[in-house]
Design a protein that fits this description.
Chain A has helices at 44-51, 75-81, 89-92, 98-108, 113-126, 142-154, 172-184, 196-202, 220-223, 227-232, 254-258; strands at 5-13, 19-28, 33-37, 60-65, 68-69, 82-85, 160-164, 188-192, 205-210, 213-219. Chain A has 259 residues and is α/β, with parallel strands linked by helices. Chain A is globular, with a radius of gyration of 20 Å. Classes of the chains: A alpha/beta (259), B mainly alpha (264).
């Protein structure tokens, strides 16, 4: 079977000499939803920028997307197949209206007008934002902007979605809706996140990055409960135990203190 | 989200709202061109133009008071530029003051010119304000593009408009952070200036970093140096009628102004 993503000994250093990715190697099968976790500065965003070729030409190692090697020649095809959703939707939504933003990708792929309109409608429907076409991004809430940001990428009909901190800054309801949306989408997904519960619910497999190295790659259920591993890399085991029963006494309430 | 002051568009379904944005843009430019070309004493022509502008305000269902208030912001600027005119024109002196060996006099021709400059500035801002109040900004951008304003320029305006709101939010965050830590009486002006300098610097760096992320977002969606968009405007019968009517009125006002100038 052709792997959706294959990365071999990927190494990249920023111009100031700081090594951001240090010999990364992994492969992801089509349809897999995989989390990428690790402390800030571990290289998660840098990895994503490489996978769709925005950072290109300064690295060593090789990247294949759906069997096609990422080179200067395949750069634009790869970008069309790999949709990158940025953490801050204000970076992603740069057009004056929602319609123009969602149409940006399809238009720049050179699709005819009818097809562009069909894709915009379909992408907005997929994220539940039909009817927002003429809205301006600054009139939308953060949760709405995140959904539109995902739609801008879905409109390109990519095989692979890269999501950078999709739940950051969302209130519980918007976050719940987003997780459900991501669960429904059929694309292969790589999700960089500090939100361990989102990782737990959405991604059966997890990669742990630390200081540019891939330090673990395995089932989420195993890795996230390995306290020693998690703490060694600046992460924490998510609180997944059931909430305490209400009749059990809670020692640190105000009334307990005053007794 | 305290930047409603940036958004001048008023929702509406009036005739003026429904006209094609290209027509409105051209009509506004024509109005400004004509009104600035009316000679100083062409008062009937000014009256005609003011009447037309106010009629448009009425048709657009914009509250008159609001339109007047917004257009009046131009007057101080025009006033500063034009303040010397009444004193520097040759003509019959209406008022004189002696300052030592100097004589300061206000002439009738100077005063007429000053008033006409102020009226021109006010009317130009009034119709521009009306254009912005009745046309959503994205449509204005499309109109600019349709009228062959260079794409790079239109994109720049578009990004400016989009990120002005983000920038205002960031500036407000920085300001709030400063206020939260400013306890007691402020220190010297020098110290305040340094704090302000720091704020401006950090805003600049944030914007610079954001621009790099936006560019990455554009690249990853297939951008290759040229922004493409779909043209969604359609020229209707009412646009033809309104356009023709407006052209006739503008020509009439222009000729009226010239005739008066010739007659004097």
């Amino acid at each position: 079977m052709e792997m959706a993503v294959r990365v071999e000994s990927l190494r990249f250093a920023y111009p100031d000499g700081r090594v951001a990715l240090d010999g990364i190697r992994f492969a992801i099968a089509p349809g897999e939803k995989v989390a990428v976790v690790g402390p800030n500065g571990a290289g998660k965003s840098t990895l994503f920028l490489h996978l769709n070729g925005v950072l290109h030409g300064e690295h060593t190692g090789r990247i294949w997307i759906a069997g096609m090697e990422l080179t200067d020649k395949t750069l634009r095809q790869v970008r069309a197949r790999v949709g990158l959703v940025f953490q801050d939707p204000d970076d992603q939504l740069f057009s004056p209206t929602v319609f123009e933003d969602v149409a940006f990708g399809p238009l720049h792929m050179g699709l005819p007008e009818e097809e562009v309109r069909r894709r915009v409608t379909q992408a907005l429907a997929a994220v539940g934002m039909l009817g927002f076409e003429d809205k301006m991004p600054h009139h939308l809430s953060l949760g709405e902007r995140k959904r539109i940001a995902i739609a801008t990428v879905l409109a390109m009909e990519p095989d692979i979605l890269l999501l950078d901190e999709p739940s950051a800054g969302l209130d519980p309801r918007a976050r719940r809706n987003l997780i459900q949306l991501l669960q429904r989408l059929p694309q292969t997904m790589l999700v960089a996140s500090h939100d361990m519960r989102l990782v737990w619910e959405l991604c059966p497999r997890t990669l742990i990055l630390d200081a540019g190295r891939l330090v673990a790659d395995g089932p989420t259920a195993v890795l996230l409960q390995d306290e020693a591993l998690m703490e060694a890399h600046g992460l924490e085991v998510p609180m997944l135990a059931p909430a305490p029963r209400p009749e059990a006494p809670i020692p640190h309430t105000i009334s307990a203190v005053w007794k | 989200m305290k930047h409603s002051f940036l958004d001048r568009y008023r929702e509406g379904t009036s005739l003026v709202h429904r006209l094609d944005p290209r027509l409105k843009l051209l009509g506004t430019l024509a109005f400004i061109l004509v009104v600035t070309n009316i000679p100083a004493r062409g008062w009937p022509a000014f009256l005609l133009m003011a009447g037309l502008a106010l009629l448009l305000v009425r048709l657009a269902e914009v509250p008159l008071l609001e339109a007047l208030k917004r257009s009046s912001i131009a007057l101080p600027f025009a006033g500063v530029v034009a303040v010397s005119i009444p004193f520097t024109r040759a003509g019959e002196a209406l008022w004189q003051a002696r300052l030592g060996s100097w004589t300061l006099s206000v002439t009738d021709a100077g005063l007429a010119l000053f008033l006409s400059v102020m009226v021109k500035a006010w009317l130009a801002v009034l119709v521009s304000g009306l254009l912005v109040a009745t046309t959503p900004f994205p449509k204005l951008l499309k109109a600019l593009r349709a009228l062959h304003v260079p794409a790079a320029l239109v994109s720049t305006i578009s990004f400016m408009y989009r990120y002005l709101f983000v920038l205002v939010d960031e500036a407000m965050c920085i300001q709030t952070a400063r206020e939260a830590r400013s306890v007691g009486p402020g220190r010297t002006v020098w110290w305040r200036a340094r704090v302000l300098g720091g704020m401006i610097g950090s805003l600049f760096i944030r914007s610079y970093e954001r621009s790099e992320r936006i560019y990455a977002a554009m690249l990853s969606r297939g951008f290759a140096g040229e922004i493409r968009s779909l043209d969604q405007m359609s020229w209707q019968k009412r646009d033809w009628l309104a356009g023709l009517g407006w052209a006739v009125l503008m020509a009439a006002a222009f000729v009226l102004g010239r005739l008066i100038a010739g007659g004097l």
